[in-house]
Amino acid sequence: MTTISLVGIDLGKRTFHIHAQDRHGNEVLRRQLNRMQLVRWLANLPPCTVAFESCCGAHWIGWKLREFGHTPRMIDPRRVRPFVTGNKHDFADAQAICEAARRPMIRSIEPKTPEELALASLHRIRDARVAERTACINQTHAFLLEFGMGMAGSKAMMGALPDIVEDAGNLLPSTSRQMLIALYEHYRYLCDRIKAADILIQARLKDDDLAVRLQEVPGIGPITASAICAEATQARQCASSRDFAASIGLTPRQHSTGGRSSMLGITKRGDGNLRRLLVQCARVLLMRKEQREDAMIQWARRLSSRRHTNVVACALAAKLARILWAILVRGQRYQPHPVAATVG
What we know:
This protein is an alpha/beta fold. It has three domains: about 5-110, Nucleotidyltransferase, domain 5; about 115-205; about 230-255 and about 265-330, no CATH class. About 55% of the residues lie in helices and about 10% in strands. The chain has 14 helices and eight strands. It has helices at about 35-45, 60-65, 75-80, 90-100, 115-145, 155-165, 175-205, 210-215, 220-230, 230-235, 240-245, 270-285, 295-305, 310-330, and strands at about 5-10, 15-20, 25-35, 50-55, 70-75, 110, 250-255, 265. A six-stranded mixed β-sheet has the order 3-2-1-4-5-6. Helix 2 links the parallel strand 4 (about 50-55) and strand 5. Helix 5 crosses helix 9 (about 220-230), helix 11 (about 240-245) packs across helix 14 and helix 13 packs antiparallel against helix 14 (about 310-330). The longest helix has about 35 residues, at about 115-145.
């Protein structure tokens, strides 16, 4: 019997399509299995490399593969798509996953631990509630503007909304009053959910030495420190601090040809939520750059004299990412340098 050395799995909700190859890249078998059949088949399969896309359910597959002694390779779906030959179908996707896994330049993603995945899920839920609250505020503001009531500041507007509904002197019909009451109740509910998520995050970080060390970095608060902890496995997979900054899209995009180098804006790859948090931390530091004298802020101050504020914020966010990588991977603590470097 031919020995299987590489397996590509096209993940699904109920059915999984398998394409297996030997060490020469020849197809050994092609099979469609449900979830229970897949688990039994992987448990009986001799240890080999199993590749799959980083999509919903991928972490569970990675945990099972490690439990059975296999080597998981989780690959970005954008790296798999160019290897699909012919018409697109599930078995062709599984074969393309195998072809991508054989390329040494295609990097794989390390599956998160259950604790990291739970923490990342908590951040996704919180971000969804924040976006929903923003939509609720904007909708309320638009409805009030239709009746000539424009107010500055979202908190002030939502705080005054009960009084606006109770005011009989305005032009609001009864239907609009009921609608605004419902929006206000929904706004309060979302605020409570966001506050509950913040309490969970802070409780998680209270006894975590890594989170405490991360918050020693200027501009890094509990939310950002928690998001970094959720990406600890991915950070340790990066060979250098620049690789970590590049993995979250904070390094310039390059478009060079004919020996001429052309550097564009940031790539915006990887985790968009983590990138957004780091850029916000950088903006907070820039707002208070006159109050600090350490080397990092002096460097940002010099850069601000010749670059746009957005460019400086992204550059400072990339520097913060490098510092956080050193804390995550090398176990160091943040050590501010009081004297600025001579090179800008």
